[in-house]
Design goal:
By secondary structure, this protein is mainly beta. The chain is built from one helix and seven strands; from the N terminus they run E-H-E-E-E-E-E-E.
Length: 102
């Protein structure tokens, strides 16, 4: 995984990503192979935590043709995010983290 990013949502961003259900932030993760090629059709697990230690899953998404997957959230306090790919028969597991601070 190349990383995870957190973006504030806007009407334009919601249209681009598909409606995010009233979320205030959009989380974007991109999964690529060792050569940097995007991996399509892979399941990513989005998790969040308020202490950076104890994470709970809040979304599962499938990567698109660009290797990207999106999830929305509406944090009210500092929130730690982790996106995980559990691996499959062709690729090993990977993860990326990001932090939202209001």
């Amino acid at each position: 995984m190349t990383g995870a990013a957190i973006l504030p949502t806007t009407d334009e961003l919601c249209r681009e990503l598909g409606y995010l259900g009233g979320a205030t932030v959009a989380l974007i993760a991109k999964l690529v192979d060792e050569a940097g090629n995007p991996l399509q059709g892979k399941e990513l697990i989005f998790e969040k935590s308020t202490d950076g230690v104890n994470y709970v899953e809040f979304a599962r998404r499938i990567t698109n043709e660009e290797g990207e997957a999106y999830a929305g959230d509406s944090p009210t306090t500092t929130t730690y995010y982790r996106v995980r790919f559990e691996g499959d028969e062709s690729y090993g597991p990977s993860s990326a983290e990001a932090v939202y601070t209001p």
